[in-house]
Design goal:
Number of helices: 10
Number of strands: 19
Helix content: 25-40%
Number of domains: 2
CATH superfamily of the largest domain: Zn peptidases
CATH architecture of the largest domain: 3-Layer(aba) Sandwich
Radius of gyration: 24 Å
CATH class of the largest domain: Alpha Beta
Order of helices and strands: HHHEEEEHEHEEEEEHEEEHEEHEHEHEE
Structural class: alpha/beta
Strand content: 15-25%
CATH topology of the largest domain: Aminopeptidase
Length: 437
């Protein structure tokens, strides 16, 4: 029954429960870190997460092939000890929920840390913190289920925890959406650890959060020949050199200086021998902006430059584009919700506004084509300076696990306030939350 006398101190109960679970959260995170699986291969990870949920009498919905899962808590979700795993598509319609999302895939990077929980899979490691994200979302949903059962929450909750595969390849969120993971969700919260921030702090930002991303391939065709007689050939390496220089010089000139555009070439392949001009060179890179219209304009300019320079040199170029995740644009009301939850957990001074959007990509954005959502960054630095994301030395201060779980759980509880007003903050999808810009 809600509320009980104990539920009057629900925030204290929440924090205490997570502290009791702290060692278990570290065990879960270290297990995931020792047993990473790359994008598209997260079968054992999915089964492990399902076993953790089932051990606490929760009913995970597992995607076909055991690639990803989700679980509901509250509002009639199955919590009995005898419940069985459901299959995606079996859930019945119910009142809207708020979701919390974690990603479960690892990267093709060799773990070089000297720790007991170092990756046991050669060439694969959790270098982007997805093991921490998974553990944090697990911690939040497990403590919410525990307090809900015990009648220690001030009102009923309606939450879904999503554990998605393949974030790094921009496929996982799309697969979860297709399987029904966002059906019945009203809003969604996400988290990303941040080694540039100290533990016990979070970063929040209204609006633009991450970039609109595209991958570029320029296939430059020439005519091979002897290095001693370049006049008999059409040198694709020379074309590539001119083209890269022109793109770096002129692309910034066609865009408004207030619209950030980051174009970087990371691969050049061409030729076999020092004294042979090759027939072909392939150049690959990425384009990142904060707006799809800016991306489209930039792509047009790159194609004009590529066609013009290659034609002037007697060659030919084929431009190929692969769209990555769209930009994450945080819903302002949900950011305010995260600010209030963060202040309750880490204090006012440790809730920091992020000045600039990241030019990295995040497939959390794919969910936002279906539901409103917001992400925040969680301080996890182990030292100063700490190894960055995607580093073979990346690690976290594990105290961040309980902090992140508490912020998410706190936000969920406030969102579910039936009166739409938790401690003076209007919540749950209304348009009257205070502006905290």
């Amino acid at each position: 029954m809600h509320p009980s006398k104990a539920s009057l101190n629900w925030a204290g109960e929440l924090g205490a429960s997570l502290q009791r679970r702290f060692e278990r959260l570290c065990e879960i995170r270290r297990h995931l870190h020792r047993h990473p699986e790359p994008s598209g291969a997260e079968v054992k990870t999915t089964r492990y997460i399902a076993s953790v949920l089932a051990a606490e009498h929760l009913e995970p919905v597992i995607l076909p092939g055991s690639h990803g899962l989700w679980v509901d808590v509250g509002s009639g979700s199955g919590l009995g000890a005898d419940s069985q795993d459901r299959t995606a598509g079996d859930s019945a319609p119910e009142r809207p929920r708020i979701g919390i999302r974690g990603d479960i895939d690892a990267l093709w990077i060799q773990d070089e840390k000297r720790v007991t929980y170092r990756s046991g899979v050669d060439g694969v490691m959790h270098a982007c913190g997805h093991d921490a994200h998974t553990t944090i979302v697990l911690g939040a949903i497990l403590v919410l289920a525990e307090l809900d059962r015990a009648g220690l929450l001030p009102w009923p909750i309606r939450c879904r925890a999503i554990f998605q595969p393949a974030e790094e390849t921009n496929q996982g969120a799309l697969q979860m959406i297709q399987a029904g993971a966002v059906d019945g969700l009203a809003e969604l919260l996400g988290i990303h650890v941040d080694p540039s921030r100290v533990v016990n702090s979070i970063g929040v930002r209204h609006g633009d959060f991450t970039a609109d991303c595209h991958e570029l391939e320029l296939e430059i065709h020439g005519s091979g020949g002897h290095a001693a007689r370049p006049h008999e050939a059409v040198d694709p390496i020379a074309i590539a050199a001119q083209l890269i220089s022109a793109i770096y010089q002129f692309v910034p000139r066609v865009n408004n200086s207030h619209d950030p555009v980051v174009l970087t070439f990371g691969q050049i392949h061409g030729g076999q021998l020092a004294n042979v001009i090759p027939d072909q060179v392939v150049v690959r890179g990425t384009l990142r902006t904060l707006d799809a219209a800016v991306s489209a304009k930039t792509i047009e300019q790159i194609e004009r430059l590529a066609n013009g320079i290659s034609a002037a040199c007697g060659g030919r170029v084929v431009c190929r584009w692969l769209s990555g995740p769209p930009p994450v644009k945080n819903d302002p009301e949900l950011v305010n919700l995260l600010i209030e939850a963060g202040r309750a957990v880490v204090g006012d001074r440790n809730v920091q506004m992020i000045r600039h959007a990241s030019m990295g990509g995040e497939d959390f954005a794919n969910y936002l084509t279906r539901v409103r959502g917001a992400m925040f960054r969680l301080g996890c630095a182990t030292a100063s300076p700490a190894p960055p994301l995607h580093s073979p030395l990346f690690d976290i201060d594990e105290r961040a696990l309980a902090i992140g779980a508490e912020v998410l759980a706190h936000a969920v509880i406030r969102w579910c306030d039936p009166k739409g007003d938790a401690d003076g903050v209007t919540l749950k999808g209304t348009n009257h939350r205070p502006s905290l810009h």
